[in-house]
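[09:14] KT: can someone run the structure on this one? pasting the chain below
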Amino acid sequence: MKNKNFTTSILVDQSPAEVFKAVNNPRAWWNEDIDGRTDQLNEQWSYRFEDTHRCKVKITDMVPNERVVWHVEDNYFKFTKDPSEWTGNDITFEISKKGTQTQLLFTQVGLVPANECYEVCRDAWTGFIDKSLRSLIVTGKGELDWYLES
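[09:31] RB: done, structure tokens below
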């Protein structure tokens, strides 16, 4: 279990196309401070949260209504001994039908319990996927500040 990649999933009543569209709009569910195109294969973009976290991402796989993969090309954490902890990770979004619903399976390949950021990152991704991305899919508006409620 020590090397198990972090994964979480949600089920929604919306179509795979609606889920795919929402995933590709991380400004609406993850953070507004993103530079670059986030909705096209081979595009590169950057994310920043205050002075605590920033990363550069490349979209390396994209199958409409089925899958999106972000490859973390560079990463900086202010709060870990190894500030580049995510560098080389793949963040995957797998979309599939489950009966009448659509499942989104999120996995960060490389985010494992041995990582210093694991607990913080697990909690953050769980909130962003289960609260903010789910809200964007279901209501059309993400909950970017969900963590302020805790």
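[09:33] KT: thanks! The domain at 6-149 is CATH 3.30.530.20 (Alpha-D-Glucose-1,6-Bisphosphate; Chain A, domain 4).
[09:34] RB: yep, looked fine to me
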